[in-house]
Write a structure and sequence with these properties.
mainly alpha, 0% strand, 239 residues, 11 helices
Length: 239
């Protein structure tokens, strides 16, 4: 493991933590393309370590205003589908998984801005949790789907609910990857090294969190979902 590369990648984690702390999700979307390009051997395990750590900070220091009903349905679905994500890591190419994930994000955005508006219903939470169980484990991106379901919630509730979702979801993914030998000691060490960068990104995002009202947050979520899908597809095509 090249420690210079690991430390430089910490700035990608800083940027990702800033985005996620502002709108509720996005750390993996920002950081994953850099990891795939410069340290693919650390994916997805090292990123999952940091994905587990940031929600802990958010829940300890921020409001714990959680939409428990939506969260429960989403986590049950994610638990059931996570094994499929683990299997996908073993049998599918990274390119195929990434393209499918990016297209799913775009389709979800289209559904959200159309007449068929996505709301926080049990059915939508189950679908979002199931998709995240696959893509969050296989492609390290699961936040956009559940974020779209929660887009009409007040900002503090959206961020807190997503934090709880990421916390439990990352634990599920790490457990599944460990069982099949896809989570290594190097993943753990690199993830721990990135935690200070993540903490600085969270702290730097405080002014942005204070300025985002519900309407601005919804627009930010939709816009960043588009960025997420394009990022994933470009990553698959070019890298």
């Amino acid at each position: 493991m090249d420690w210079t590369t690991v430390l430089l990648l910490g700035f990608a984690l800083f940027a990702g933590a800033f985005v996620q702390s502002s709108i509720g999700f996005g750390m993996a979307v920002v950081a994953a393309p850099f990891l795939v390009l410069f340290a693919p051997e650390l994916m997805p395990g090292a990123l999952l370590v940091t994905s587990f750590s940031l929600p802990v900070v958010q829940l300890v220091h921020g409001p714990r205003d959680i939409a428990w009903r939506s969260l429960s349905w989403a986590l049950v679905a994610r638990l059931l589908v996570t094994p499929l994500g683990v299997v996908a890591v073993a049998v599918l190419s990274v390119r195929a998984i990434s393209v499918v994930t990016g297209l799913l994000i775009l389709l979800t955005v289209v559904a959200s801005v159309s007449a068929l508006e996505v709301r926080a219903t049990p059915a939508n939470s189950v679908v979002a949790g199931a998709i995240a169980g696959f893509s969050g484990t296989a492609a390290s991106i699961g936040g956009p789907f559940f974020a779209l379901v929660l887009q009409h919630e007040r900002p503090t509730r959206l961020r807190a609910t997503l934090s709880a979702f990421f916390l439990v979801g990352a634990a599920m993914a790490v457990t599944g990857l460990s069982v099949v030998g896809e989570f290594t000691h190097e993943h753990l060490v690199a993830g721990i090294v990135w935690i200070p960068f993540m903490a600085l990104g969270y702290a730097a995002a405080a002014p942005a969190r204070a300025r985002l009202d519900r309407d601005r947050l919804r627009r930010a979520v939709l816009a960043f979902c588009v960025v997420a899908s394009v990022s994933v597809i470009v990553r698959a095509v070019w890298f």
